[in-house]
Prior knowledge:
It contains 12 helices and 15 strands. With 331 residues, it is an alpha+beta fold. The chain has 2 domains: 144 residues, Aminotransferase class 4, branched-chain amino acid transferase, N-terminal domain (D-amino Acid Aminotransferase, Chain A, domain 1); 138 residues, Alpha-Beta Barrel (D-amino Acid Aminotransferase, Chain A, domain 2), CATH 3.20.10.10. The strands form 2 sheets. Strands 7, 8, 9, 10, 11, 12, 13, 14 and 15 form a 9-stranded mixed β-sheet that branches. It has a 6-stranded antiparallel β-sheet with strand order 2-1-6-5-3-4. Strand 11, helix 7 and strand 12 form a beta-alpha-beta unit. The longest helix is centred in the first third of the chain and has 15 residues. It is globular. The site of pyridoxal-5'-phosphate (PLP) has 12 residues, from helix 7.
Amino acid sequence: MNSQPTRLGYVNGSYVPETQSGVSVFDYGLLYGQTVFEYTRTFNLKPFRLDKHIERIFNSMKYSGIDCGMSPDELTKATLETIDKNLPTLADGDEFTIWHNITAGLRDDYAQFLPENMSGPRILINVFPLSITRPWVWQQQQEGASAVITRQRSTPAQLLDPKVKNRSRLYYRIAEIEAARIKPASIALLTDEDGYITEGTSSNFMIVKDGQLISPRPKNILRGVTRGALIEIAQSLDIPFIEDDIDKYDAITADEAFFCSTSYIIMPVKILDDHMIGDGQTPGGITTQLADGFSELVEVDFMSQGRELTGLAEFYASSVQTPDLNMATNV
Ligand SMILES: Cc1ncc(COP(=O)(O)O)c(C=O)c1O
């Protein structure tokens, strides 16, 4: 029995139960991966740097040939409204993650044979409780993550630019499967065609060497919102920062290394392939300074919040929502 109100998803201007916020099997998003997306989270129920995520999704749409017919302000307003509408579904103390998925819409030659309300780009905004992912994120943050450099490479910017946050992500998924096969629960770390480190499958990567924070050059990576915030924090703390080529040697001989993303904020790396990073104590000194600076910025101690949210899974287990198998005709 559902004891929780149903989460609502925004679909092209309407709010429908989450289980109905899907896409047609004839959508370019499914057929070609012509979907752009964003993943944002709240701190104290306020979305962190939503303006940056909205700016990025509009840039991604421009690159991918998608015109969603909305302005950035309208998409922002719809996002805030989606959060508000779903507040009654959230456990006390929890936060929302916010998914934007925008597809190119129905394949042109099929559209006239399908219901009119299915045509055009599909604009989906969904929220989900942050706590659902916290047990494993929190555990890895405490223990220090293992990372595996995969044979699967990033796509170079001249083929499909990783600065575009898009759903043609098969190569990321293959990298994750490969990493899990080599070392269960490890995080895949990708390289570019020259063997320089790029990023994780859903996070950026940085190292610390001799007191300096070093990021891969921003050409073949997604320019993460979290990465941007951490660079600003480093600058405010007078931690020297550079963007440079990082090869495997640089990474395994670094003093500290971490992944960073909306989901992790900071995920310290303890082991890379078979090598201990630094003295194996995570988080290292500069990583800790950056993590503290981030907590100060968002006015939430994100590490201890992770611990506090690990107990909430049971609360949501009682609200599992049954999929509506007629979804495609209902919208
Ligand atoms: C490939 C990739 N790199 C980096 C990031 C981190 O970006 P952000 O900090 O904006 O979440 C993500 C986030 O999903 C990602 O998918």
